[in-house]
Amino acid sequence: MTLTTLRTLDEIRSTCRGVDGQLGFVPTMGAIHAGHQSLVRAARQECDVVAASIFVNPLQFGDDEDLDAYPRREAEDAVLLAAAGADLLLLIDKDEMYPPDFATTITQSETLVTTLEGECRPGHFEGVLTVVAKLFGLVGPCRAFFGRKDYQQTVVVRRMVADLNLPVHVEVCPTVREPDGLAMSSRNAYLGDDQRAAALSLVGALRAAEQAFRAGERSAPAIEAAMETILRAGTDEPEYACLVDPLDMSRRTAARAGDVAVVAARVGPARLIDNHSLGDTIPGLPARP
């Protein structure tokens, strides 16, 4: 498939808004892997034209995070996106996205953006919402495809779309995992062999949550304690192991089917996150009868 690359705001706006039919949009920060490709394939099945963006967004990185080290491989990424079915590749220069006089950012209520990822990464979601709003403003009406691995991100983006009445339908696609269950992430490339094995503690913690729930445990603190035990045993810096409401990310006291177990930890140079909905299947456990 031929991939057309668009680099200026004007050509992105005119091309995407001139699409004849339904536009599917997959925003990324590059370092494309099978998870990103699955989003492009989902968009390809549902839409007439598929656009994918690559923009490493400085607003969502903290001062001590990996902005400078984040993988950048434009040519390789373009090949992978084309192979998955993308028609358009949007490559925007940082200075064009955020000119020197840029003065507007987007945030939400504290219950959405200052807990969990927002607490561990202050200002992160302000950066996410700002860049996503700008991208939606450029491409216009579309179906936007996001991966479930960044669960809290999908919650805040959906809320922004609803609150601002944006002409965007947000599709959340399943997390793509390695054969051993580890969620695919651009940051997995940072891991050495021993660290890669240790990273399985995240999915192990989610399995523990599901096992406890299947066994009849309904105390959220008890389920969280089971997750935290595994996370602390295997990772360098466990950050959280929580059970939350799937719609607003508020902490649960009593667990019920559909609640989301969320975990985050540092493993060597990488900060990893993962999540699982109680009652769903998860690698390493048999399907529920």
Radius of gyration: 19 Å
Contiguous runs where pLDDT drops below 50 for at least 5 residues: none
- CATH top level of the largest domain is Alpha Beta
- Helical content stands at 25-40%
How many distinct helices? 11
Would you count the extended β strands for me? 9
For this structure, the CATH topology of the largest domain is Rossmann fold
- Main beta-sheet annotation: 6 strands, parallel
Write down the secondary-structure element order.
EHEHEHEHHHHEHEHHHEEE
What's the overall geometry?
Answer: globular
Architecture of the largest domain, according to CATH? 3-Layer(aba) Sandwich
Percent of residues in beta strands: 15-25%
Nearest-integer average pLDDT:
95
CATH homologous superfamily placement of the largest domain: HUPs
Task: Please tell me the total number of domains.
Answer: 2
Structural class, by secondary structure, is: alpha/beta
**How far apart are the termini?**
42 Å
Strand order of the largest sheet: 1-4-3-2-5-6
